[in-house]
Design goal:
The protein is of the alpha/beta class. The chain has a single domain, classed as Rossmann fold. Helix content is 41%, strand content 17%. It has a seven-stranded parallel sheet with strand order 3-2-1-4-5-6-7, sandwiched between helices. Strands 8-9 form a two-stranded antiparallel sheet. Strand 5, helix 5 and strand 6 form a beta-alpha-beta unit. The protein is globular and about 45 Å long. Bound molecules: 2-hydroxyethylsulfonic acid. 2-hydroxyethylsulfonic acid binds next to loops.
Amino acid sequence: MSESTSSTESRVAVVTGASSGIGAATARALAAQGYHVILGARRVGRVEALAAEIGGTGRQLDVTDDESVARFVAGLDAVHVLVNNAGGAKGLDPVADADLDDWRWMWETNVLGTLRMIKSLLPALEASGDGLIVTITSTAALEPYDNGAGYTSAKHAQAVLHRTLRFELLGKPIRLTEIAPGMVETDFSLVRFDGDQDRADAVYADLTPLTAEDVAEVIGFVASRPPHVNLDQIVLKPRDQASARRNIRTG
Ligand code: 8X3
């Protein structure tokens, strides 16, 4: 096997937030490429079931908790791919009405959660000899929008943390890819609107959003490039969406 061929035999991939949506679809995509996938999520039953299906390993993981992260990474000596997917949005309120608990949750999960995972797994990523960090940010990491400051500020911060590593890790065998999706129909909006299904459905009504599989397929492409190819940033949106808040609804 030549050095530039990206063999995935016995390579290890870690996916956070792997119990549903983009995380679950990414775990499936990487397993299909031959990775042994370690799936992490708070809902351990779900990741264990999916792990059993794809020949991976499911472990409980709360990225907001130091001890949970330490338990999750224990024994992972060589990791080839880390997908920072855990995170999300809560609320859609003007800054004047900001709910501090919602902001705290968004910063804890998206920003500090990503930081905890990266800090914990950097030695294992380097030890693999060909590490890759994929961070799922959002189009919200590229542009602010009305009522979204809690989420857009967290996503901007998460993205800057990730992009800074591109400089700091130069010279080490670790690649970094930021994936910035627009509208993807998962339980993202259901969580954002605290379980209000009608409100969540309205976000994707009368247009064709991306699916979790659309995003996972791109991550699979990134992970299957040879070690010298670094895809720095990929922005993907539905054809019906031109910017964070500009889209076309045709019914
Ligand atoms: C989700 C995209 O437009 O709802 O990350 O902020 S958006």
